[in-house]
Amino acid sequence: MTETQNTPQPTKAALLNFDTDSDTDPRDELISSLQEQLLQANDKRGEERFAWFASLNIIADLFVFPSLASWSAPISIAIIQILLLIVLGRKWGVDDIWTLTEKMIDKWDGKTGLK
Fold first, then answer.
1. C-alpha gyration radius of the chain
2. Rounded CA gap, 17 and 52, in Å?
3. Contact, 36 vs 82, CB < 8 A?
């Protein structure tokens, strides 16, 4: 007899058993744990990038703003920088920026007052 003749054929119920609670594979648990760690590391890296960018932005403003002659230039630069920080915060997944902008979008909800 050959090796394939000695092994029993799996039943249809065994093949269609999708209940994974009873049979947990340690590899699946390890994979899900590693995926969660990777997501957390990527999230922390995005928040760190945002913090560095915002800090360098503030330092640059401290050097540039005193040398500007009028008050309109710093205000316009600050508005552009705030918009840039919001865009980068959403792109890099900063939770506080994401929540703030989602609340603003939900509150605005396309209401411009124009009919």
1. 28
2. 51
3. no
Residue 21 has pLDDT above 60, yes or no: no
- b/e 80-100 (16+ beta carbons within 10 angstroms → b): eeeeebbebbeebbbeebeee
User: What would the pLDDT profile of 32-79 be if each residue is shown by its tens digit?
Assistant: 899 999 999 999 999 999 999 999 999 999 999 889 888 898 999 999
For residue 12 the two structure tokens come to 């249809």
Q: What is the pTM of this model?
A: 0.64
- DSSP-derived 3-state class of residue 56: helix
Rounded-to-integer distance, Cα 18 and Cα 31, Å: 19
Give the tokens for residue 96.
């506080």
Chain center to CA of 85: 15
